[in-house]
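Narrative progress, year one. The postdoctoral researcher (J.K.) led the effort to move from monomer predictions toward full complexes, under supervision of the PI. The following entry was the first complex the group processed end to end, covering 968 residues in total.
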Amino acid sequence: MALKKQSFAADLPEAKRLLLERVLSCADANIEPSLHRLFRFLRIPSVSCDPLCSPQCQEAASWLATELEDIGFDASVRQTTGHPVVVAHRKQVIGPHVLFYGHYDVQPVEPLDKWDADPFDPQLKVHPNGDTQIVARGASDDKGQLLTFVEACRAWKTVTGGLPISVSMFFEGEEESGSPSMDEFLNQAGGELRADIMLLCDTYLWNDAVPAITVMFRGLLEEEVEITCAKRDLHSGAYGNAARNPIQVLAELIGSLRGQGGEVAIEGFYDDVKEPGEELKSELKKLHFDADKFLQTVGLSQSAGDRAYSVLEQVWTRPSCEINGIAGGYHGEGLKTIIPSKAHAKISFRLVPGQDPEKIQAKFHEHIRARMPADCSVKVTGLGSSKASVVPSNSEYLRCARAALKDEWNCESVLIGSGGSIPIVSVMQSRFGLNALPIGFARSDNRHHSPNEKYDLSSFHKGIRSWIRILARLSSGESTSSEL
Amino acid sequence: MALKKQSFAADLPEAKRLLLERVLSCADANIEPSLHRLFRFLRIPSVSCDPLCSPQCQEAASWLATELEDIGFDASVRQTTGHPVVVAHRKQVIGPHVLFYGHYDVQPVEPLDKWDADPFDPQLKVHPNGDTQIVARGASDDKGQLLTFVEACRAWKTVTGGLPISVSMFFEGEEESGSPSMDEFLNQAGGELRADIMLLCDTYLWNDAVPAITVMFRGLLEEEVEITCAKRDLHSGAYGNAARNPIQVLAELIGSLRGQGGEVAIEGFYDDVKEPGEELKSELKKLHFDADKFLQTVGLSQSAGDRAYSVLEQVWTRPSCEINGIAGGYHGEGLKTIIPSKAHAKISFRLVPGQDPEKIQAKFHEHIRARMPADCSVKVTGLGSSKASVVPSNSEYLRCARAALKDEWNCESVLIGSGGSIPIVSVMQSRFGLNALPIGFARSDNRHHSPNEKYDLSSFHKGIRSWIRILARLSSGESTSSEL
């Protein structure tokens, strides 16, 4: 099966165009009910890493399946060893078959006191400039984004009674927790998820006006390091100087992870890094990325990374090591003069093509072992890993999507990278040779993983419209090619 | 006024001795009611550093005042700008006048999950070897210890209707929080606290069989350091490498505080340190301190401090820098891939004679300033400080106390140091020239400031008996010298 080039280059036939206009109008007219459904979805606190939230993850999966059945999908909740997966199909005889991927789970909400309102009581915040934002945990990552596709299907169904091409959907509930059950689930149900292309929406616009297709993702290795010295907390007067302090040991370890120039200082860390190709490098240069603005937006003025690389390279094409959390001893009100028994940190690595998570993990462990003084025991717990991935930047599906995006946004879309990780992209690529087409409508200021996460109402609305157009473009060849 | 040497060298006169035996027997016969009172005291969660515990601090002070009135003291609760102080007097026409100091406040109980039972529901734990332990927050530090003196006075009162010498008592409620209201209180009420000698009980036995008088204390400087980088938490994928990570910065700062040899690496930190005198050094050598056992008891095998000094010197006569707590980013279940906005640590310094807390603070702040990279703001908050102090090791009061301790324990007491800080000792010395006589009955395994804090029933009982004897010894000169 191959998409014929000419089916994308020409404008749509008049009948198709009129039908498309009706579907878009339907979505416009129904934006309030769409928003109402999103709010219902956001009220479910499906924090996948919190064992107490298991029932809520189940609830989110069931809610999604019901919504999909409502628009004609054959949808079901599949139990896994972790949180359930939702799988849904609505197949056509002709046209390409797309698999849409998303995740219904969300990040934890801590620090709760930094939120202006309950993270699970979504608010519509209207700004003086007229922008309207949906504020809630998951508003953007990924509930709001995934619903853009579901609502696009709903509009097609409302107007035409069906969908223009075959669509399957696949929603997991462990994306924010390293997807521990994914492998086992794919072993059992993987064949069912085969398709021509995987669409996903867990990515960003380039800016408010320019849509983007994300063609590379960094991988992730996340480790928890716990250092134990004395067998109990000690009085810092009685033992101060003599007793090894695990916070001191952990701090020295963390200090050793970065060199003076900002580079990661683990031996052999960069050994297998594959630099991006020249074509992609030149695409990235065309972006005229404003590094100063990127940093200034979050209150920073200088990059902390390896000075031999641009800021865009640092966050997209260079691997990283970050301390995501640290805790040890007393950190409540006032003082408590102890030498604690334990200290721990969550340390993660963003990986780039060529780097193998297992090899990096081994090098990290060796780095730790070489630095432990006497009387320290160290426990390192793996919290998940995934390889980096690259999306082909020259496929017919991609050209098709770019044409649709141009129709909606009135400008050319751009190809970008992502410093973040969407593990499913590399997993589906290596398992089924299934390439991804990641098109997201989140803005860079959406505060993913942070307090007051938000999704702009315009992202939600134009996201729905964009998917309606992409589905139309993907189906537009059906009159000229039975293979499409 | 001077104590005549011979009044201590000779045994007590027969009448005094018989009276003393009756007082000791009274204490023995009433150990259960004494314990009952201690339990009542321990049930009050008077955590001074927790603003929510203010009413409980007030309650502990009131309870103490009532107990003291019950044994004939003129006792009152004095309000301060912080937690109240209890002052009580019962004066005689002749004999020396002692001021007993203690504190009714306790350390926080975190980590609560490490306690075998509610920290404020005291338990009597009988061990297979017959030892009985009182387990609760404050059991030893300082509620159990201070009650040994109160109960000793009660026994004297029960048998004789009065006390053998003039006694004042002074209990504060902010010892575990750096005594922020102490200065102001002493300015107002200080004259009332003048006495010939200050007794205190917030110290340790040398070992289970050998009592000790503590003749030196380290001072304390406690600082809270907060580092802020970006103005909000960031997604570690989107910003990893480029955004300055405050945990990394804090870790590098902490790493810089100790040198390779275990010494504190702040410039000029040791400049003003006064080494202890030769006489005291030789007293310390006589102790035959078992450094290996000291470390092994808490699961350690090697000292982490400056190798140029013995372990005993490291914890008693050398200054120290300890990280008491650290926190930043996410440290709950699972993972959260953020670069946090802030990280903070509680860092304290144990100081020795010669070191001025203000000077050390200035050097520490300069050390921090010199190490802050771009885009970091640092806030350092002082949480309290006190100078080190030394107790004269050749006073008549000390000889008197040693004689009494020998009577009770059947062995010579020893002179020791303390790595901890009892700020009141240096304060009363510098304000009123009032020397201290610190005699405590805690064991080194009492888990002060830690979960499952305990006080041995034998410490409590023999502590009461020791104070009964010390009061007798201090009064024993009254028949031969009206000045005593």
